[in-house]
Amino acid sequence: MPGESPQGAYAREETPGMKILCAIDGSRHSQWALDWLPHVCSPDDCSLLLVHAFDMTQFKSLPKLDRKTRSALVNVLECSLEGAARVLEWAELKASRSWGPVRAKLLRGSPADAVARSAKREQADLLVIGSRGVTEFQPMLLGSVSRKLLMQAPCPVFVVKKPANRLKRVVLGADGSIESWEAVAWLRQLPEHIRPAVTVASVIPPLPMDSLRLPARALAVGDQVEGVLRREAQKLAARVAGTLRKAGFSAKGIVLSGPPGAELVTVAGRERANLIVVGSRSGRSAHEYFMGSVADTVVKHAPCSVLVYRS
Asked: For position 64, what pLDDT does the model report?
């Protein structure tokens, strides 16, 4: 349902010095995350912090080891720690070529918790992470961890799933929520030379009537309700598209019917989008998030990178 854009929804546009935190794990996906940064923000207006999480907590509860085995384990962990430091150093050198001064921090603890804590402590405005997607089952720092960060992060999360490319086509999920309008604000504050074509998609969830034997009168009422929802969705999509056009974007509004996450993924594939932008409400429980989140569905199945806007 459309509503007035919240007071102050565009206030972030006037706030200089965006703080970006980019999580690094040495995979090609985190390399893509670094490569994506210049396509969504300007080095002149942003500060960049690179973090790598090194987790030794899983070794604290191991059964008692003999001296030789314990010594070998310590050596392995020390080598791993040195490797983690080298990964972070490499990323810092690469990023500094285009960003100037870059900070880097080696974090301790489980990746999702450590990165989320760092984002909160640094008051980050954007968290950038790589994700290998649902088709790869190899354990990794930023794979399923990206889903946990979507729930824990105190700021918007940019989930990189594909190699960097010029931002040409964006699908924006619009549902009238504060987070949805703030996602619009995020697009509006992109550097002026970055103005992708935006498809604003307002999705009508399916009414729970398909599998039920309902009388004709109830079905008629359902059709009437769906008609009202469609008209309101059309108004919302048109309003958001108009707001973006005023900011210099090429934008169109469309209305879809079906499960919102799946519909956004489908239209992104059809439009050959290289970014989906979707809002996500903060404060959900883990069960509520993973079982019913539109953002979670989009991140898992999107054919492109995803920005999840959390406020």
From this structure: 73
